[in-house]
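The pair is quoted verbatim as follows:
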Amino acid sequence: MKSIKYFAVAAALTIASFSALSADEINSAQAVDQQAVGVVSVSGATNLSSLEASLADKAEQADAKSYRIVSTTGNNNLHGTAALYN
């Protein structure tokens, strides 16, 4: 029974730490007060949800605290760009 409690606590802490590390998407009004530190882009997404997820992953890999999607183009093969902020 103790091992189940320890596992539950470890799982909760792991989930909490991963959510704390992810970059947050912000809007243009929130970006006004922040300094852009870089840009990421992705290509080949088939829908907007996967494009947003890919940009969020790249922002997280770049250790950005937040990001703002600045452009999207395409029909069946989407391309997107996001500005990174710290």
User: Anything to note?
Assistant: Helices lie at 2-21, 28-31, 48-61. Residues 2-21 form the longest helix (20 residues). Residues 8 and 14 are 10 Å apart (CA to CA). The chain has three helices and four strands.
